[in-house]
Design brief:
71% helix; 51 residues; membrane
C-alpha cells in the first residue's frame, strides 16, 4: 500500500468517528426532558397589596 492510501483510510476513519459522535450528541440532546417552573398563583394586584 502506498502512503497516500494509508492517509485516505485514516482520514475516512476519523470522519466517520466524528460523524458518529455528532449523531450521538444530537440524539442525547433531543432526548433530554426539559422542565419549566410552575406558574405563580399570586397576581400582580396581590403583589402590590403585599408591599
Amino acid at each position: 500500500m502506498s502512503t497516500m492510501m494509508i492517509v485516505i483510510i485514516i482520514s475516512i476513519i476519523v470522519v466517520l468517528a466524528v460523524l458518529a459522535l455528532s449523531i450521538l450528541t444530537v440524539n442525547k440532546g433531543y432526548s433530554y426532558k426539559h422542565t419549566i417552573d410552575p406558574p405563580e398563583d399570586t397576581t400582580l394586584q396581590e403583589k402590590d397589596d403585599q408591599k
